[in-house]
Amino acid sequence: MAGVNEIRAMGRVVMDNVEKVIVGKRQVVQLLLAALLAEGHVLIEDVPGVGKTMMARAMAASLGCSFRRIQFTPDLLPQDVTGVSVFNQKTGEFQYRPGPVMANILLADEVNRATPRTQSSLLEAMEEKQVTVDGVTYRLNRPFLVVATQNPVEYEGTFPLPEAQLDRFTLRIRIGYPEAPDEANMLARIAHGHPIEKVEPVLDASQVAGLQEATREVYVEDSVRDYIVRIVASTRTHPDVTLGASPRGSIALLKSAQALAALEGRDFVIPDDIKTLAPYALTHRLVLRPESRLRGATPEKVVEDIIRSVPVPVEGPL
Known about the structure:
Layout: H1 4-18, H2 26-37, E1 42-45, H3 52-63, E2 67-71, H4 79-82, E3 83-88, E4 93-98, E5 105-109, H5 116-119, H6 123-128, E6 130-133, E7 136-139, E8 145-150, H7 163-166, E9 171-173, H8 180-190, H9 205-215, H10 222-237, E10 241-243, H11 247-263, H12 271-282, E11 287-288, H13 290-294, H14 299-309
Parallel strand pairs: 1-8, 1-9, 2-5, 5-8
Antiparallel strand pairs: 3-4, 6-7, 10-11
Helix pairs in contact: 1-2, 1-3, 2-11, 10-11, 11-12, 12-14
């Protein structure tokens, strides 16, 4: 089994490879890789044109993993995601024709443009790593990562993701506009062809699965685990919040912290890992009171307030 030094080394190689395509967004790439190692899923919420799709493609290409993209639209059906059973006249039996969900990395592009029925077709896959079609259950490939995107400024013709589905995403991240030097670098690289066409895999799917198993062995001290619990519990009692983070939020914070620690070359989680990841792991799980929103409260401000108020554990790792 791989150790944390190997995870750190391989993580750097992957991030360097993705940065051939996505310039100046190393922290975002690291968060995406952390979600993958934590066996979770990512919601990328940002304006069009900042590289959401390209980041998922570059990550899949770097990892040597199968990649499928689904353009979510109002007429998309659940079977267009999960696959369908087709009757074979020669054998007299139904045969399963896999849908795009059978890829290692699935890009659900503009996920909020599909109907709730189609959106919900991802729930079983994301939570249980399987799909059920006509009463038959099929296991998904390993690794399996859903990268969903949505545009936060365009709501016409969309179906907002319900809390139950938002809760399935380990992290919600934003890419943001590039800095001027990075954008100039990007233009220079793309002048003679898109760099995504030249990205070569630096790992394969079996190696990624091994890194995921090794990530589970990263040590989490009781005091750090208690720190996670206190932070998540505070989201449920905060005066601006009507619905706080669920226990799934605690698990997401724990697993992604293990992954981040491993990517930093540590075999133990520290409180700073929790502080770093809390805004990405918790904000999309909070429902604020309408009157608080009118006063300018946001999930980001709530989490920031909680991080400031919850005492940090002082004990170090054993």
